[in-house]
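Students often ask why we bother encoding 3D structure as a string. The short answer is that it lets us treat folding as translation between two languages. Here is a chain of 422 residues written in the first language.
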Amino acid sequence: MLLGYPVLFKSLCYVDGRWIHSDSASSVAVVNPADQKIIGHVPLLDRAQIVGAVDAAERAFQSWRWMPQHKRSALLLRWHELIVRHQADLAGILSLEQGKPLSESKGEIAYAANFVEWFANEAKRLAGRTIPTHIDGAHLGTVMEPVGVAALITPWNFPVAMITCKAAAALATGCTAVVKPAHETPFSAIALAQLAEEVGFPPGVFNVVIGDPQMTMETIVGDTRVRAVSFTGSTRVGGLVAQAAARSGIKKPALELGGNAPFVVTEDADLELAVRVAVGAKFQTSGQDCCAANRIFVARPVYEAFVERYTQAVSALKVGGAFEADVDVGPLMHQAAFDTTLARIEDAKAQAARIGRLVLRADRRCGCESRHAHLRRRELRAHLRRVRIRHAGRGHRTRRVRTRGVCLREPYRHDLSARAEA
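And here it is in the second language, the structure alphabet:
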């Protein structure tokens, strides 16, 4: 893959305004999930170096917190400008290491840039409140202050957007950031760090560290100087993050954990629209995100018509590598996800399910802004304190239902195996 701006593709971590390798020379290979070819190696920092990143963020916080809001906003807007300018290269890096089709990756870069722009403008509006008081001759109010160093732990399914969502919120409020990206998709985070350096963020304000996943998480989350933690990932790992945060004292957590997403088609639904939205909900990111529909409830009167149209739409999807023309569905990220998908197909067949046209490429393991408005606000709150002045490729099933109440009564924990339903 040729980049228009090759400096974006680096194999180093970014700490305190410097590009560093592991002191022990440890590294990990990064592979293209479509063909398992190695695309590069990144360093695995030692524990002392991870602590050094927190040191740098803590030092930078002492001055960054007092930078006027309009100046922090200007730096973030400049970061937004560079992300948009290099959208094609950033999308190429994302597709290379994550596997999603290039068109999806370009959409994610635009989505990611939007977070930066939104928080940059929100930075100008951070203000406290004047509160009515019952005390004669007194004034009651609040001021908003940054909490301190923020640990930002991001997943591999949206390796650019989840960083900008968290980091832009932290930096806008006056916090500094230590980013730990997923080791499967580190190059996107490093590219963002390159652009952050070009913007002119002071050393230590934005740091990217890669190390042994558990050690790195425990080191940054468990550091008492880290005052905010933002994590997106599985519920299991989220529990470990919450435990590590609790052991190190009171800090502000923002945990976006695994989803459970039913898709409901009512009797009066526009079936053409329902099918189009259902396919998008299921197969974006190859079904590997927390909003992916993992089961579909369809009202009995329209069940057969919906299934027929849905099968036709899914059969028309093109499966392939990220850089192939007109690809709709890219590879699954891990071999385990691919094996699980095959197991669910076999389970469905054993339960007498009707299997539509099935396309498997075992060699390649291919398998809106508004929905995250709440996420923006939550991330902003996570990095502020009020001072009183006294989310993987999952199978899904389609089920006939008589009433909407059935959907509401479904338990949260659900058997996600594909099964035939009477």
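Translate back mentally: The chain has 13 helices and 15 strands. Keep this in mind for the problem set.
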